[in-house]
Each structure stands twice: as structure tokens, then as C-alpha cells.
Amino acid sequence: MISQTVLSVAAKLLSGASVRWIDCQPDACQRVYFANHTSHLDAIVVWSALPREVRARTRPVAAKDYWIKTWIRRYLAKTFNALLIDRREIKVHQSPVDLMLREIGDWYSLIVFPEGGRTSGEEIGEFKSGLYYLCKKRPDLEVVPVHIDNLNRVLPRGEFLPVPLLSCVSFGTPLWLEAGETKQSFLTRAREAVVRLKEV
């Protein structure tokens, strides 16, 4: 069986990802890492960019319909302990946010992609409300912006095999939902934090 260490090394080699921590340090405290989304490799690459002790306590959130489609995807998702969300069976009494909070308890951190679907990588799309509700229900969680650069070219849309290219994963300054902050204000501020990492 492939270990988490082997998978993380393979992901680093395939993506050629360098890692930057900007006004932030790796920490095993509970966090929500939120990143732009351009490739199916995003979840694995952000997860593999974390130090081993942090990686062991971090679960990427990923689309169930994609990651259960083949045995190799199911195998990989199990290896990096993905929290799979069924986008087709979203119910009011069992929302994705409630599922995430139940699964992480007081131990695991999350990697999420607030844009929802993948984008071209040229622009960062508007953030959906899930990140806001995560922070509203768990205001103690640190929320860390992450910018992924060039992965859309490493695994272009519709392609099966990665193309070896250099990419970069940047972690930025943690933020929290402020008292009285509106949903739109928070989501705008969070999105701008990712955009700034792209420009640093």
C-alpha cells in the first residue's frame, strides 16, 4: 500500500511545487486552508506541501463524484484521507458544512476550495458561502489563504497524465471572521487574501 509519505513525495515530484510561507508558519493547530482551484491535483498538492506532522492532521475536501469514479482515484483519496462531499445529494439537514465540522471534530484541519468548481487559473472566481458558514460555526478556527500557481498547466482540464512543470504553493497570513462581519464582506476579504498571494 502507498503510504502518505510516498504519495506526498510523488505529488511534489509531479507538480514541481515550491512552497512559500508568507507571514505564516506551519502549525498543527486546527485550521482551514482555503485555496484557488484550477486542477484535480490541487487537493493533493496543497496537502503534500504541508510538513508531515501537519499533513497527518489535515483532510482535503474533494468532490465525491470525481474521486470514486475509478479504483485508483478511490485508492488515492483514501491514502490522503480526503473528506468526500456528494455534490448531488446536498440536503438542508445534512449540509456539507455540517458534515465537515462533524468529521474534523477538535482534531483535524481542512483544505477547501471556496470557488466551488475549477477555473482557468487566469482569474480567481467569486467565493461561495461555505467558508463563511464554517467560520461562523467554528470561529476558533484559523483560516489560512493559499494560492496555487501553474497547476492548471501541470494537469490541464480533460487530460489524464500530468505534464511536468514548475508550480508554487503560497501560504498567507491567517485570518478570522470578525464580530459582526457580513458574509459578503468576509468572502471578499478572504478572496482578496488569495489574490494578494498571487501578486507577492
Defining traits:
200 residues; single chain; 7-stranded mixed sheet; 7 strands; 9 helices; Glycerol-3-phosphate (1)-acyltransferase; globular; alpha/beta
Explain the overall architecture.
The protein has nine helices and seven strands, in the order H-E-E-H-H-E-H-H-E-H-E-H-E-H-E-H. The longest helix is centred in the last third of the chain and has 17 residues, at 183-199. The chain is globular. The N and C termini lie far apart (39 Å). It has a single domain, classed as Glycerol-3-phosphate (1)-acyltransferase, CATH 3.40.1130. Residues 159-164 have low confidence and may be disordered. The chain has a seven-stranded mixed sheet, with helices on both faces. The chain is of the alpha/beta class and 200 residues long.
CATH class categorisation: Alpha Beta
Structural class: alpha/beta
Q: Which shape, going by the Cα principal axes?
A: globular
* Gyration radius, rounded: 16 Å
What's the helix count? 9
Residues in helix, %: 25-40%
Instruction: Indicate the multimeric state.
Output: single chain
List the strand order in the largest sheet: 1-7-6-2-5-3-4
Q: How much of the sequence is in beta strands? A: 15-25%
- Write the element-wise H/E pattern from the N-terminal end onward: HEEHHEHHEHEHEHEH
* Strand segment count: 7
Mean pLDDT: 83
Count of domain modules: 1
The residue ranges in which pLDDT falls below 50 over 5 or more consecutive positions are 159-164
